[in-house]
Amino acid sequence: MSQYFSNVPVIKYEGKESRNAFAFKYYNADEVIGRKTMKEHLRFTMSYWHTLAANGSDPFGAGTYQKPWDNEADPMKIAKAKMEAAFEFMNKLGIEYFAFHDRDIAPEGKDLAETNAILDQISDYCKELMKANNKKVLWGTANLFTNPRFVHGAATTCNADVYAFAAAQVKKALEVTKELGGENYVFWGGREGYETLMNTDLKLEQDNLARFFQMAVDYAQKIGFTGQFLIEPKPKEPTKHQYDFDVATVMAFLRNYGLERYFKMNIEANHATLAGHTFQHEVAVARINGVLGSLDINQGDPNLGWDTDQFPTNIYDATLLMYEVLKNGGIAPGGLNFDAKVRRASFEAEDLFLGYIAGMDTLAQGLRIAYRMLEEGEFEKVVKERYSSFSEGIGKDIVDGKTDFDALEKYALNHSAIKNKSGRQEFLEARLNQYILNEQ
Ligand code: XLS
Ligand code: NI
Ligand code: NI
C-alpha cells in the first residue's frame, strides 16, 4: 500500500512544552480523566468528505489542495487510493472513527444500479481496511445535494421521481452503513428547504419529509439496523431557509409527526452560529431534552457569516462544549466529528494534520478544564443557589404542582416587597477565565 503522507510521522503526545508541529500538546489519548480515557471521552472522528474529498475550491476559484491520492485517471483507482490515504491518516493521528457520505467513498456510475454496484465494491474494500486497521464507522449518510438532480431538494422536492430516487439512495446508504457496523446514521437536510414561498407548498414538503423519515425508520427495522438515527440541524445554506433550522425546530417537527422516539440530534458548531445561537445553547437544549446524539466539531468566522467549517481552536467555546458533554454523561454512541476543512491557502497535504492536531488539542484541553469545573462544582453551586427559592416554601409548591393562580395571587398580595439578588455574570465570566488560564 502506498504512503500518501510520507513526510508526516505518527503523531504522539509530547506535552505543552513541545514546539514540534507534528505532535499533540494537550491530547493524551490514554490519560484518564474521571473514569474514562481522553480517547473514550472524545471519540474523535475523521470526516471523509472534508479530509479526503474536498479540493479547496470556493465560489470564486478552483481547488487548490494537493491530494496525492487523486492522481489516477480511473475513478475506481482514485476511490481506492483515497481510502488508503484515509486509513493512513487516521492511523497517524490515532483516530478510531470516521464518518462518510455514500458519494465520498465511491463515484457514481451511469445509473442507480451501476452506482450501487460500485458502492458495494468499495464498501467491501472499506470493510477489509477497517478490520486490518481497527477502525469504526461513527455514522454514514447519503449525499442528496451535490448531483444536479437534487436542484429542488430530495425528500422535499416538487418532483416525485427525485423523491423516489432519494429514497432508493438512502435505502442503499443504510445497508452500507449497517454492513460497515455504523453506530449512527445522519440526515443532514442538504437541499431540504426553500428559496421562495411563491413556488413552495410548505405543507406538502414538510409532510413528505416526515413520510421519508418514517420510511427510513421502517426500513432500518426491516434490515435490523440498530444504529441511532440523527438529524443535523442547519438554518440556511444552501437554501435560504432550511427546514431543520435548529434543535428546537427539529424537535417540534418530530413531535408534530410522532417521530420523536427515533431521532436524536447531530449538532454542528458553525450551524449553531448561523442560527444565531451559541454551540453551547444548541447542545444544552438537546441535552435537557434527552436528544444529544453526536457533534460536528468546527467553528465559523463571525465576520464572514457562512458555513466556513474551520478547525476549532477557540478554547473558550471548547470548554463550554465539553462542560455540556460531561453533564450529559458523555456523547457515545455519538462522537466528535471534525466536520472541518483547512483554509484554501493551507493547500499542502500536511496542513490536514496540522488542522486536526489544532482541533484535537483544543477539545482535549477543553475537556480537562470542563472536568475540573464540574469536579469543583462552583458553577453548579451558583446555579443551585440562584434557584433556591424553588426548593422551599411557595417555590416548592409551584414545582410540586400544588399551586394555582388563586393561591399565587393570595401569596403575592401578602409578599409584595420583593427582593432580587445579583446574577453576578461578570464574576462568573472572570472565574471561567481563571479556570481556562490556570489549567496549563
Ligand atoms: C453541511 C453539513 C454536512 C453534514 C453531512 O453543512 O455539515 O457536512 O454534516 O452531510
Ligand atoms: Ni455537519
Ligand atoms: Ni456544516
Structure description:
- The protein is of the alpha/beta class.
- The protein has helices at residues 38-42, 48-53, 75-93, 102-105, 112-133, 160-179, 202-223, 247-256, 269-274, 279-288, 315-327, 349-376, 378-386, 393-399, 405-414, 425-438, and strands at 12-13, 23-24, 32-33, 36-37, 44-47, 97-101, 136-141, 184-188, 193-194, 228-232, 241-242, 263-268, 292-296, 336-338.
- An eight-stranded parallel barrel has the order 5-6-7-8-10-12-13-14, surrounded by four helices. A two-stranded parallel sheet has the order 1-2. A two-stranded antiparallel ribbon has the order 3-4.
- Helix 6 links the parallel strand 7 (136-141) and strand 8 (184-188).
- One nickel (II) ion (NI) binds at residues 188, 232, 268, 296, 339.
- One nickel (II) ion is lined by residues 268, 270-271, 307, 309, 339.
Bound molecules: D-xylose, nickel (II) ion
The N- to C-terminal Cα distance equals: 40 Å
Number of E-state strands: 14
Main sheet record: 8 strands, parallel, barrel
**Low-pLDDT stretches:** none
Quote the beta fraction.
5-15%
> How do the SSEs run, as a string of H and E?
EEEEHEHHEHHEHEEHEEHEHHEHEHHHHH
- The main sheet orders its strands as 5-6-7-8-10-12-13-14
Binned, the helix content reads 40-55%
> Mean pLDDT, nearest integer?
97
Radius of gyration: 24 Å
Structural class by helix and strand composition: alpha/beta
Output the number of helix runs: 16
CA-based shape: globular
SSE blueprint:
Elements: E1 12-13, E2 23-24, E3 32-33, E4 36-37, H1 38-42, E5 44-47, H2 48-53, H3 75-93, E6 97-101, H4 102-105, H5 112-133, E7 136-141, H6 160-179, E8 184-188, E9 193-194, H7 202-223, E10 228-232, E11 241-242, H8 247-256, E12 263-268, H9 269-274, H10 279-288, E13 292-296, H11 315-327, E14 336-338, H12 349-376, H13 378-386, H14 393-399, H15 405-414, H16 425-438
Parallel strand pairs: 1-2, 5-6, 5-14, 6-7, 7-8, 8-10, 10-12, 12-13, 13-14
Antiparallel strand pairs: 3-4, 9-11
Helix pairs in contact: 3-5, 5-6, 6-7, 10-11, 11-12
The structure holds D-xylose (XLS) and nickel (II) ion (2 copies).
